[in-house]
C-alpha cells in the first residue's frame, strides 16, 4: 500500500508541474514538448543532437519530433546543420534565442520555491517528503489540494459519526478515505513558514 501511495504522490506532483509548464509555454505560443526538445538539445552532445536521438530520448514518434523541430526552427530557437562526414545526418543546435528561452523558463519557479522550503526539512519516509513537497507546490501555485477527507481541516469526529465542518453533513466511513475538491489542508507550520 505504501508503494501505491508514494506513486500517487509522484503522479500528483507531476500533474501539477505539467499544468504549470503548459501555462508558461502557452503564454509564449509553445507546447511543453517544444520545451522538452529544447532542454534536451541544450544538454546533449554532438553525437546525440539528431532527430532520431530526440525521439528516442523523449519517447516520441519521428513525426511528432519532425513537426516540433519545424516549429522551433521557424521561431528561430534552433538551427539545423548537415553532418560533414555523413550528409544524411542533420544535427540540431540551439540558437542564442533558444538558449535564452531555456534560461528563462526552467526550472519552474514554483518548483524552485518548493525545493527551497522542503530541502530544510528532514523526513522519515519518502512519502512524507513527497506529501510535504506536494503541499508546498499546491500552496505556491494556489491550487486546490484534493486531499483525503480525513486529512482535511473541516473533518471531525462527532459523537458517533464523522462530520464535514464545511457542509455540516455527516460523512460515511468510506468517504473519509476518498479525495475531496473542497479539501483544506490542516495548517503545517513548516509549509506555512516563509
UniProtKB/TrEMBL annotation:
<dbReference type="InterPro" id="IPR036390">
    <property type="entry name" value="WH_DNA-bd_sf"/>
</dbReference>
<dbReference type="InterPro" id="IPR055166">
    <property type="entry name" value="Transc_reg_Sar_Rot_HTH"/>
</dbReference>
<keyword id="KW-0804">Transcription</keyword>
<comment type="similarity">
    <text>Belongs to the SarZ family.</text>
</comment>
<dbReference type="InterPro" id="IPR000835">
    <property type="entry name" value="HTH_MarR-typ"/>
</dbReference>
<protein>
    <recommendedName>
        <fullName>HTH-type transcriptional regulator SarZ</fullName>
    </recommendedName>
</protein>
<dbReference type="Pfam" id="PF22381">
    <property type="entry name" value="Staph_reg_Sar_Rot"/>
</dbReference>
<feature type="domain" description="HTH marR-type">
    <location>
        <begin position="3"/>
        <end position="142"/>
    </location>
</feature>
<keyword id="KW-0238">DNA-binding</keyword>
<keyword id="KW-0805">Transcription regulation</keyword>
<dbReference type="InterPro" id="IPR036388">
    <property type="entry name" value="WH-like_DNA-bd_sf"/>
</dbReference>
Amino acid at each position: 500500500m505504501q508503494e501505491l501511495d508514494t506513486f500517487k504522490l509522484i503522479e500528483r506532483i507531476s500533474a501539477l508541474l505539467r499544468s504549470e509548464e503548459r501555462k508558461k509555454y502557452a503564454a509564449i505560443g509553445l507546447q511543453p514538448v517544444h520545451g522538452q526538445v529544447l532542454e534536451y538539445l541544450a544538454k546533449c552532445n554532438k553525437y546525440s543532437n539528431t532527430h532520431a536521438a530526440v525521439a528516442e530520448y523523449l519517447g516520441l514518434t519521428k513525426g511528432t519530433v519532425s513537426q516540433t523541430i519545424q516549429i522551433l526552427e521557424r521561431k528561430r530557437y534552433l538551427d539545423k546543420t548537415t553532418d560533414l562526414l555523413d550528409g544524411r545526418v542533420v544535427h540540431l543546435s540551439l540558437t542564442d534565442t533558444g538558449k535564452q528561452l531555456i534560461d528563462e523558463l526552467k526550472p519552474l519557479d514554483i518548483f524552485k520555491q518548493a525545493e527551497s522550503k522542503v530541502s530544510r526539512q528532514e523526513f522519515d519516509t519518502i512519502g512524507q517528503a513527497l506529501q510535504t513537497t506536494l503541499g508546498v507546490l499546491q500552496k505556491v501555485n494556489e491550487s486546490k489540494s484534493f486531499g483525503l477527507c480525513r486529512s482535511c481541516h473541516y473533518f471531525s469526529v462527532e459523537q458517533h459519526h464523522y462530520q464535514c465542518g464545511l457542509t455540516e453533513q455527516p460523512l460515511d466511513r468510506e468517504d473519509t478515505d476518498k479525495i475531496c475538491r473542497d479539501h483544506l489542508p490542516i495548517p503545517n507550520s513548516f509549509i506555512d513558514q516563509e
